[in-house]
Amino acid sequence: MQISNFLQSEEWAEFEKSQGSEIFWIDGILLTKNHLPKGKSYLYCPRGPEELTEDFVKAAHKLARKERSIFIRVEPLNHINIKTHKHTIKKTININPANTLILDLTKSEETLLSAMKQKTRYNINLAKKKGVDVEISSGVVSARTFFEIMKETSSRDNFNPHSLKHYEDLTNFFGPKKMLKVYLAKIGGKYIAANIIFYYKNTATYLHGASSNEYRNVMAPYLLQWQAILDAKKEGFKYYDFWGIAPDDSPGHPWAGVTRFKKGFGGEQMDYPGTYDLVISKYWYFIYKVVRFLNRLF
User: DSSP secondary structure string, the chain?
Assistant: First the structure.
């Protein structure tokens, strides 16, 4: 299964530049520079490289020293064995989801429906019967509507969302390129759920989702998700990436609820190794980790 990786695209690199990031390429692999105090920095390779080859590591080390980077954060697509690797590599908190669910859109609509859990099919039909309408947009106004619903979601589920500016910047940059759509569900003139879907090459990605505290009994997120899947299939995309589920056997995971929701649509689980740090300066890396730990405490 060869899904497309938008985080390693030229378009994403340009978006990072528009946000003020310095970007670098090593043999077609994107890295961004993140500034730290004392003139230090670290390099970040989002959802890459595919393989942590010796050639990549050497080139990345050379770049890191030039940019005064104390480590290189990577998210390799394939497994690495840090115990046998010749360089100092540390597992760190995942930036992007290490586990996701992929739906094969080349299957017929009937096959996709039959692969769903019965409760998911029921909730899609229930939302239709309750009169949930779906709107599709890519403008900045829709980003603001999304953010208002996201504030309810984040408060309910106890997490910190991105800023309004982040969502506005995403829609302003990728909307005109036809790489992003905002799906909005409403009932009686009130918006009650919203999804942000990203499109790159053969893959549509469910990047962000939010739902209101009101009208939860009309099951709007189910219809909203199904409409995005149908539209992506109609537009010729091969895969639909649900972008993040809880690891197996993790009933207490913060994503356990949304994982049940996503798995109701079927699909095949895909697992990545997660996020690792290639350490350049052991001393400064130690200082960095201590400061990060203290910041989380206070």
Answer: -----GGGSHHHHHHHHHTT-EEEEETTEEEEEEE-GGG-EEEEETT--SS--HHHHHHHHHHHHHTTEEEEEE--SS---TTT-SS-EEE---SS-SEEEEEETTS-HHHHHHHS-HHHHHHHHHHHHTT-EEEEE-SHHHHHHHHHHHHHHHHHHT-PPPPHHHHHHHHHHHTTTT-EEEEEEEETTEEEEEEEEEEETTEEEEEEEEE-SSSGGG-HHHHHHHHHHHHHHHTT-SEEE----PPTT-TTSTTHHHHHHHHTT--EEEE----EEEES-HHHHHHHHHHHHHHHH-
Domains of the chain: 6-97+273-297 (3.40.630.30), 99-271 (3.40.630.30)
- Nearest 5°: the CA angle 119, 120, 121 is 90
**Res. 85: pLDDT tops 80:** no
Q: pLDDT digit string (tens) for 110-158?
A: 999 999 999 999 999 999 999 999 999 999 999 999 999 999 999 999 9
**What does the alpha-carbon distance between residue 127 and residue 120 come to, in Å, rounded to a whole number?**
11
